[in-house]
C-alpha cells in the first residue's frame, strides 16, 4: 500500500469517526456547536494520537499534517449542519462508529508495523487505534466505554488488525487485503449490533434474580 492510499484511508476514518462523535454529542448531551466540534474532533483523532504516542512518533501525525485536523473539524461541522437528516438515517451513529473502527484498526496496524514493531504488537496497536477515539468519546460524556461493555467492539478490531498484521508479516499486504480486513471488522461489528451478540459479562444480577425466584 502506498503512503497516499494509507493517508486516504486514515482521513476517511477520521471523517466518519468525527461524524460519530459529533452525532453522539448531540444525541447524548445536546451540546452546542463548540461542544459538538470538540467531541467530534476528539473522537476522530484520539485513537491515532494514542497510537503515535505509544510508538514514539512525536509529534503525532495529527499535529504534523494539517489535513487530519481539518477533516476532523469539517466532519463535526457537517454532522451539526446535517443533524436532522443524519438522525433520520437508521442507526447512523453505529454505522459511522463501525466504519471508523474498521478503517483505523487496519491503518493503525500498518503504521505500527512500519515503525518496526512485530505483527503481534502491531495488531494490538491497530486495535487500540480503532477503539481509542470511541473510548475517549465515551469517557468525555461520562459513559462506560463501549470497549468495556460490548464484546463485539474490541473483538472485530482485533480480527481486522490481526488479518492486516499477518499479511504484512508474510509480505502479502496490499490494498485489497486492507479493504478485506476492514470489511471483516465492519461486518462482525454490525452483526454483533444487529443480533445483539456479546461475550459473557460479569453482571451477577440475573443470577441473583434467578435464585430468588
Explain what you see.
The protein has 213 residues and is mainly α. It has one domain. The protein has helices at residues 3-28, 33-54, 61-64, 66-81, 83-88, 92-114, 119-140, 146-149, 151-169, 175-194, 205-212. Helix 1 (3-28) runs parallel beside helix 4, helix 1 runs antiparallel to helix 6 (92-114) and helix 7 packs antiparallel against helix 9 (151-169).
- Please state the average pLDDT score: 89
End-to-end distance: 59 Å
Report the order of strands and helices: HHHHHHHHHHH
The number of E-state strands comes to 0
Helical amount among residues, as a percent range?
over 70%
Structural class: mainly alpha
- Specify the overall morphology: globular
Number of helices: 11
Which spans have pLDDT < 50 for at least 5 consecutive residues? 207-213
Give the total of domains: 1
Question: Main beta sheet, described?
Answer: none
Query: How much of the polypeptide forms β-strand, as a percent range?
Result: under 5%
- CA radius of gyration is 17 Å
Amino acid at each position: 500500500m502506498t503512503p497516499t492510499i494509507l493517508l486516504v484511508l486514515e482521513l476517511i476514518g477520521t471523517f466518519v469517526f468525527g461524524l460519530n462523535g459529533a452525532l453522539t454529542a448531540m444525541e447524548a448531551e445536546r451540546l452546542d456547536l463548540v461542544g459538538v466540534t470538540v467531541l467530534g474532533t476528539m473522537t476522530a483523532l484520539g485513537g491515532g494520537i494514542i497510537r503515535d504516542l505509544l510508538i514514539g512518533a512525536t509529534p503525532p501525525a495529527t499535529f504534523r499534517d494539517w489535513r487530519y485536523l481539518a477533516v476532523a473539524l469539517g466532519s463535526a461541522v457537517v454532522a451539526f449542519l446535517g443533524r436532522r437528516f443524519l438522525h433520520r438515517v437508521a442507526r447512523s451513529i453505529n454505522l459511522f462508529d463501525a466504519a471508523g473502527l474498521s478503517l483505523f484498526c487496519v491503518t493503525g496496524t500498518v503504521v505500527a508495523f512500519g515503525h518496526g514493531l512485530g505483527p503481534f504488537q502491531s495488531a494490538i496497536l491497530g486495535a487500540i487505534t480503532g477503539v481509542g477515539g470511541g473510548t475517549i468519546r465515551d469517557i468525555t460524556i461520562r459513559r462506560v466505554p463501549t470497549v468495556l461493555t460490548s464484546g463485539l467492539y474490541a473483538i472485530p478490531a482485533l480480527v481486522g488488525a490481526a488479518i492486516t498484521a499477518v499479511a504484512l508479516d508474510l509480505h502479502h499486504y496490499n490494498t485489497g487485503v486492507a479493504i478485506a480486513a476492514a470489511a471483516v471488522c465492519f461486518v462482525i461489528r454490525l452483526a454483533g449490533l444487529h443480533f445483539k451478540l456479546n461475550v459473557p459479562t460479569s453482571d451477577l444480577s440475573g443470577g441473583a434474580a434467578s435464585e430468588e425466584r
